[in-house]
Amino acid sequence: MDDGHAMLQVDSSSSVSKSGLDALDALDALDVRDAFERFEQFAHFFHELLDGPDPLREADCRESYREYVPSHYKHLFQPGKSGLSNRQLTWLRRLTPLLNLPPGTTILDMGGGYGFDSIFLASCGYEMVFCELTSHHIGVCELLKRRWEQEFGPLDLRCVLARRSSGHAERVQATCEAIGKVNAVVLDEVAHHIEPVEDVFSLCASVLPKDGKIFLLEPNFWNFGTQAFFFRRRGFRTVEPRVDEDTGEAYLYGNEHLRTHGRWKQLAEQAGFRLCDTSYIVPYFMHSQPAYHARWRAVAQKIPVFKSLAATHLTLHFEKE
Predict the structure, then answer these.
(1) pLDDT tens digits for 182-227?
(2) CB–CB of 115/130 below 8 Å?
(3) pLDDT at residue number 286
(4) Residue 263: inside a domain, yes or no?
(5) Which residue pairs, CB below 8 angstroms and at least 24 apart, start in 141-146?
(6) Number of domains in the chain
(7) Rounded to the nearest 10 degrees, what angle do helices 116-123 and 32-50 cross at?
(8) The pLDDT value given to residue 299
């Protein structure tokens, strides 16, 4: 692996087993141990930060955001019994295909929430463009970025504030100009909130060059537990009208509007993308690094019927034709 990627070489004395490498066959550009170390550092830092007193008091956002983000995310960053927790290991596994990209790749984190994915990926050497629809999300992300930089040094991460653009060609153009050209787009559980969902693939097509990549991270439609979880939250109502709290504009919101693997593939193809690969994440009994690397997990995630039903999440990798 001498292609110029920044990595730690795995030698015969490595504590990462051969089966572990097989289980992470998508992870080439960033070494397995390096990925774990970076993610452990990331999780530990935000656990300490968000568990502290009023961690977002200096964020340029509404008070409700200052209260919500720490209360919601500090549990996600809670450490497991032997390092990373099950939820954190699942998070890392879902991002694994992106770590195949060479450092320096420009990645758009579209609808990136509060910037956690962007900060982690920027810490891995990627040039991140974080895009969100409200100044409150931007304000939180910028504060979290500053806190990280105070501890670990500069991140290549810039924030772009977009406006809802469905039916507004001039807004789409303005958003594309603000984003600029990128090499890849990550959509981490955001596409099922966008209506009409075709808009998100059209925007990706506008900012990506030929062979540009989309990494679509979505819950698995065919997993019973996933469907039960979301059904309890929203019933059958997968699309609902809302009003933008900042502009007063009415818009449609995807209320956990999950779609099948085949439907995501169809939507991407309509926008000029082809499916390259799909990672199926089977998170059960994953409470440690050995469990993460278990041979049975690597095998299970390749059995057609089993992976389609047992995986809780998918990462679909598309390329622009």
Answers:
(1) 999 999 999 999 999 999 999 999 999 999 999 999 999 999 999 9
(2) yes
(3) 82
(4) yes
(5) 141/112, 141/114, 141/115, 142/59, 142/60, 142/115, 143/56, 143/58, 143/59, 143/60, 144/46, 144/49, 144/114, 144/115, 144/116, 144/119, 145/115, 145/119
(6) 1
(7) 140
(8) 86
In a domain, 18, yes or no: no
Per the listing, tokens 């603000």 go with 178
Q: CA 110, 115, 117: angle at the middle one, nearest 5?
A: 80
Handedness of CA 133, 152, 35, 207 (dihedral sign): positive
Domain of residue 43 covers: 36-320
Placement of tokens 């998918």 in the chain: 314
Dist. CA 187–CA 170, nearest whole Å: 23
Asked whether residue 15 is domain-assigned, the answer is: no
The residues of the chain scoring below 50 in pLDDT are 1-29
| CATH code at position 71 | 3.40.50.150
Asked if residue 20 belongs to a domain, the reply is no
Q: What is the pLDDT of residue 4?
A: 33
Nearest to 216 by CA among 118, 315, 312, 129: 315
Give the CA angle between residues 191, 193, 198 to the nearest 5°. 50
